[in-house]
C-alpha cells in the first residue's frame, strides 16, 4: 500500500509542478489570508489539481491541505492525505527556485508515504515508511555531525533567542530556505546537518519532509524531543527538530531544562 500511495503522490506532485511553473515568474495574482500568510492563484490551482488526482483514486482517505477548509471528518478516517500545494509561497512570489510541493499519506498518526517535489529544480524527494529515502531515485543519507563539528543548521533568526536555550547557547553556522519541507529534505540528503524551529509547525509543512529525513537516518522530533504525531485535531506540531542523531541529542540537552 505505501508503494502504491507513493506512486500516486508522485503523479500528483509532478502535475502540480507543471501548473506551478506556468505561474512562476509570470506575476501570479497574490493576496494575504486572514492569518497574513500569502497565497496565490497558483497555490489554489495546484491544490485543485492535487485534490482531483488523489481523491479520485482514494475517495476514502481523509483530506488536510493548507488551501482547503479543514473538514474534521478526516479524524474518523483510517488514512489521510496531508498536502501543502506550494510550500514556500513567498519564495515562489519572489521568483526564487526553492519552493516545493509537499504531499504525504498518514495512517494512525504516522506518515507512511511522502513526496517533496521542487519543480523549478526538477528535484524529487521520496520515502515510504519502511523504505529508503531517495532523491531522484538515488538513496540519500543525513550527516553524522555533532555540535562539536561546527554544524550548519537551517533555521530562522528567531531560534537564536537565548530564551530558547536555558542550558547554554549552541554555536553553529546558520542558513535558511523558505520551504520548511525542503529544509527537511536538505537534512535528509546531507546538504545541511539539521533544521530546527521552535515555532508551531503546521502538519502540511512537515508531514512529507519529516518521513524523508527520518528514513535518511536523521532524528526527527518536536521541540521537546517527542515523536511527531499527525492528523491531530489542531493539525500542528510544537516545533520541529530534524538533525543528525548526535547533533539532535546535543541540541536537546541545551534546550530542555
Any overview of this molecule?
Its EC number is 3.1.3.7. Keywords: Hydrolase, Magnesium, Metal-binding. GO terms for molecular function: 3'(2'),5'-bisphosphate nucleotidase activity. InterPro entries: Inositol_monophosphatase-like, Inositol_monophosphatase_CS. The structure is a single chain. The chain has 257 residues and is an alpha+beta fold. The protein has two domains: 2-139, Fructose-1,6-Bisphosphatase, Chain A, domain 1 (2-Layer Sandwich); 147-255, D-Maltodextrin-Binding Protein, domain 2 (3-Layer(aba) Sandwich), CATH 3.40.190.80. Helices cover 30% and strands 26% of the residues. It contains six helices and 16 strands. The strands form four sheets. It has a seven-stranded mixed beta sheet with strand order 3-4-5-6-7-8-9, sandwiched between helices. A hairpin with a 2-residue loop joins strand 8 (134-135) and strand 9 (138-139). The chain is globular, with a radius of gyration of 17 Å. The model has no long low-confidence stretch (mean pLDDT 97).
